[in-house]
Amino acid sequence: MRNQTLELFPDTKPPRAKPRKMAHIIDGGPDAVMFECSCGWNSDWAHNNFTYTEIKRGIPCERCN
Predict the structure, then answer these.
(1) Cβ(26)–Cβ(46) under 8 Å?
(2) pTM for this predicted structure
(3) Is the C-alpha dihedral spanning 49, 30, 32, 51 positive or negative?
(4) Which of 7, 23, 52, 54 would bridge with 35, disulfide CB 3.0–4.6 Å?
């Protein structure tokens, strides 16, 4: 039984969430940032108060998601 995992309760496992495609920062300033996705979608200048972590993580792509 190598590389085989037996589940005791296979029906109790919650389904995994579908991974999101994220758009990452391409330009930024003190008051605004601009994001781009690998599909080619570009955001306008976002004037929200993003935290440093949110900017590094990116935002969900509007076209892919």
Answers:
(1) no
(2) 0.69
(3) negative
(4) 23
Torsion of CA 51, 57, 61, 65, to 10 degrees: -110
Token pair of 54, please?
Answer: 């949110």
- Coil vs helix vs strand at 16: coil
**pLDDT at 50 (0 to 100):** 84
| Cα–Cα dist 37/43, whole Å | 9
Q: Along the 65 residues of the chain, how does pLDDT read in single tens digits?
A: 556 666 777 777 778 888 999 999 999 888 899 999 999 999 999 887 888 898 899 999 999 98
Contact predicate 34/43, CB 8 Å: yes
Residue 63 identity: R
Q: Look at the block and give the residue holding tokens 């979608």.
A: 41
